[in-house]
């Protein structure tokens, strides 16, 4: 740790590592040993709190005594902090809100704190007591600064501990007339460095505060500063839902699945009222609920079903079912049932479309989709709302319902990409009208036989510059491409888009049998290109004609980045036909990650299952929980389905 960085550079260090004794009081997080030397970092942070605690808070008049330019926050030097803190005391709501917005963005930026944050805490504490407006938001800023359950570095620990040191001085906020101020004050008190200094006040709040949410927060805070299981057990019988929910969460977090039925009943009855704001060290009630209920799959699905049956307030049942589906395998039947039950509660097209998209994501895992649900999907498939219609059609296609091709509507491109039966006529009609994303999905799903029958439509897309990369790739698989196609590919080989350039080069070589022009395109891309892992598969498509690229590909086998290593191994095998160099690299990378899945798929294509890979494959195949996650919007199908299927294929 750099003392000057943490403490604003105000301590003068000499060559012996001693501090200027006259500067000690100006250094809020620095302590001296008896010999005058600086203490070790941990003692600096923890011991230095006595300085903060002795001052508790600092008025805005003292802002000028801090060298803010020597401190940093999210956007560099913290010169702007004094002005922002001064603004907290104004009586203009708009200016106060603007100052808070800026402070939330610079001294606490997306969960990260900075040296300036530590110095700002005493000033923020003073504003929390003495400002006129938005004092609950000032306290909330202190709460999120303290919301570091496992400090990872000295500055983070110092910021959290600084809030803990000033917490007792903010106890008067527990008597504020504004319940929002009282609630945030309770959360600050929960991280007090001296729990005894706040325990009695928090107990009084829990017993007598007129606001149920404040009492519930006080119960949660007391679990940290003055634990008492008898108090929590009694709270489970409280007549106030917020109190029961707080008590149930505390008790569940000290147990393990499967959870007691009586506690799950509390979550089912009261959990839709869970708070979304963070509690320091715990996170929000919503996040805590989700964590608990996805850990106990049966409880999670039961609670989700009860919430949906009660009208699905706030969409909580839907989101919980989605979280369970993303966490556990082989629960699609129960998940889809919950999602289907939520459909009648939706009041607008976006929320309905969102739920239909979720059904489409999971419905292929349902062995026998009920006729009633199929009919509901068919009805929505004819909706005038595109998002609703497209999601319902995709769900029909993914459960193998051929009515997606015969219903009273034009099937969307996404549904056609996985539609059962002969969809050629529909595909021919849909391609010209599809947007880029739909066209990409549809073209990527074409098998060579269907693609060959759609050569005019694919040529039109390439000519129009639509879905050009998948179109360029699929054209390389077709026999009989005409002069216009070759000309379009040759032009694409000069594109500013490096990925299109590489794809067109490989396809042009495959169609003409002339590799030299394509090698001239690919060779520099494999050396200086921005997406080398993308260009390597295109090199591999050349087969033996890509031999001039082998020396560079062999160099990339030693890359420190997993994607280029994996793609180099795959390309080397495709070009040389020799798996000896590729298989060890693929085996090392194989596993439950995007690059690991691609490595597994390549090993399956090679037809080799190294013995040392089998334990990983068994885990990938038979884990009860999902091993791969998705981003947003989530992929359809879920990549974990591909992982499992590929692992089973390799295990034979």
Short précis:
With 652 residues, this protein is mainly alpha-helical. It is built from 38 helices and 6 strands. The protein has a domain at 1-194.
Notes on the protein architecture:
The protein has 652 residues and is mainly alpha-helical. It has a domain at 1-194. Helix content is 60%, strand content 2%. Helix 31 (516-528) packs antiparallel against helix 32 (532-541) and helix 37 (614-622) packs across helix 38 (639-651). 48% of the residues are buried. Residues 1-54 have low confidence and may be disordered.
Question: What does the secondary structure layout of this molecule look like, with pairings?
Answer:
Elements: H1 3-7, H2 41-47, H3 49-55, E1 72-73, E2 76-77, H4 81-87, H5 93-106, E3 108-109, E4 112-113, H6 115-130, H7 135-146, H8 154-166, H9 179-189, H10 196-208, H11 212-225, H12 229-235, H13 241-252, H14 261-270, E5 278-279, E6 283-284, H15 285-295, H16 297-309, H17 316-327, H18 332-342, H19 349-362, H20 371-381, H21 386-398, H22 403-406, H23 413-416, H24 424-430, H25 436-444, H26 448-453, H27 455-464, H28 468-475, H29 483-492, H30 498-512, H31 516-528, H32 532-541, H33 550-556, H34 562-576, H35 582-589, H36 594-606, H37 614-622, H38 639-651
Antiparallel strand pairs: 1-2, 3-4, 5-6
């Amino acid at each position: 740790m750099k003392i000057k960085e943490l403490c604003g550079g105000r301590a003068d260090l000499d060559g012996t590592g001693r501090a200027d004794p006259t500067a000690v009081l100006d250094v809020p997080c620095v302590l001296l040993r008896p010999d005058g030397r600086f203490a070790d970092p941990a003692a600096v942070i923890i011991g230095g709190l006595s300085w903060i605690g002795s001052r508790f808070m600092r008025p805005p008049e003292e802002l000028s005594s801090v060298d803010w330019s020597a401190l940093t926050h999210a956007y560099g030097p913290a010169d702007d902090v004094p002005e922002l803190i001064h603004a907290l005391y104004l009586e203009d709501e708009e200016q106060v809100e603007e100052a808070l917005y800026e402070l939330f963005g610079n001294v606490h930026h997306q969960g990260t704190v900075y040296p300036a944050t530590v110095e700002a805490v005493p000033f923020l504490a003073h504003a929390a007591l003495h400002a006129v407006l938005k004092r609950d938001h000032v306290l909330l800023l202190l709460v999120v600064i303290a919301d570091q359950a496992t400090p990872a570095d000295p500055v983070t620990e110092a910021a959290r501990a600084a809030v803990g040191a000033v917490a007792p001085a903010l106890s008067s906020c527990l008597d504020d007339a504004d319940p929002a101020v009282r609630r945030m004050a309770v959360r600050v008190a929960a991280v007090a460095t001296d729990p005894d200094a706040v325990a009695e006040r928090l107990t009084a709040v829990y017993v007598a505060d007129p606001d149920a949410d404040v009492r519930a927060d006080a119960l949660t805070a007391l679990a940290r500063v003055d634990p008492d299981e008898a108090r929590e057990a009694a709270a489970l019988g409280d007549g106030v839902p917020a109190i029961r929910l707080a008590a149930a969460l505390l008790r569940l977090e000290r147990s393990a699945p499967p959870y007691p039925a009586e506690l799950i009943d509390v979550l089912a009855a009261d959990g839709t009222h869970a708070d979304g704001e963070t509690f320091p060290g715990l996170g929000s009630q919503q996040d805590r609920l989700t964590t608990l209920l996805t850990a106990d799959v049966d409880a999670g699905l039961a609670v989700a079903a009860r919430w949906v049956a009660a009208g699905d307030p706030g969409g909580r049942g839907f989101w919980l079912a989605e979280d369970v589906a993303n966490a556990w395998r082989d629960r699609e039947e129960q998940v889809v049932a919950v999602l289907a039950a939520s459909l009648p509660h939706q009041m607008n097209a976006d929320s309905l479309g969102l739920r239909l998209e979720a059904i489409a994501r999971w419905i292929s895992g349902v062995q026998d989709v009920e006729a009633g649900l199929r009919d509901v999907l068919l009805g929505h498939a004819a909706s005038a709302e595109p998002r609703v219609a497209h999601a319902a059609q995709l769900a029909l296609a993914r459960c193998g319902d051929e009515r997606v091709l015969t219903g009273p509507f034009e099937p969307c491109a996404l549904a056609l990409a996985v539609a059962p039966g002969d969809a050629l006529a529909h595909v021919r009609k849909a391609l010209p009208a599809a947007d880029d994303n739909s066209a990409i999905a549809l073209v990527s799903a074409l098998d060579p036989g269907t693609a060959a029958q759609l050569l005019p439509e694919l040529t039109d897309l390439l000519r129009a510059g639509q879905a050009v990369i998948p179109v360029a790739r699929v054209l390389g698989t077709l026999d009989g491409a005409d002069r216009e196609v070759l000309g379009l590919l040759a032009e694409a080989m000069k594109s500013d888009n490096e990925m299109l350039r590489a794809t067109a080069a490989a396809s042009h070589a495959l169609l003409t049998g002339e590799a030299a022009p394509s090698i001239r395109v690919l060779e520099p891309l494999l050396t200086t290109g921005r997406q080398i892992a993308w260009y390597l598969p295109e090199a591999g498509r050349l087969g033996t004609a890509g031999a001039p690229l082998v020396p560079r590909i062999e160099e990339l086998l030693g890359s420190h980045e997993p994607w280029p290593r994996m793609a180099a191994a795959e390309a080397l095998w495709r070009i040389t036909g020799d798996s000896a160099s590729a298989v060890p690299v693929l085996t090392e990378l194989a596993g439950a990650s995007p690059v690991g899945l691609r490595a597994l798929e390549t090993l399956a294509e090679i037809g080799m299952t190294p013995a040392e890979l089998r334990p990983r494959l068994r885990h990938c195949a038979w884990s009860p929980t999902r091993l791969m996650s998705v981003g947003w919007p989530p992929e359809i199908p879920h990549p974990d389905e591909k992982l499992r299927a590929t692992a089973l294929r390799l295990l034979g």
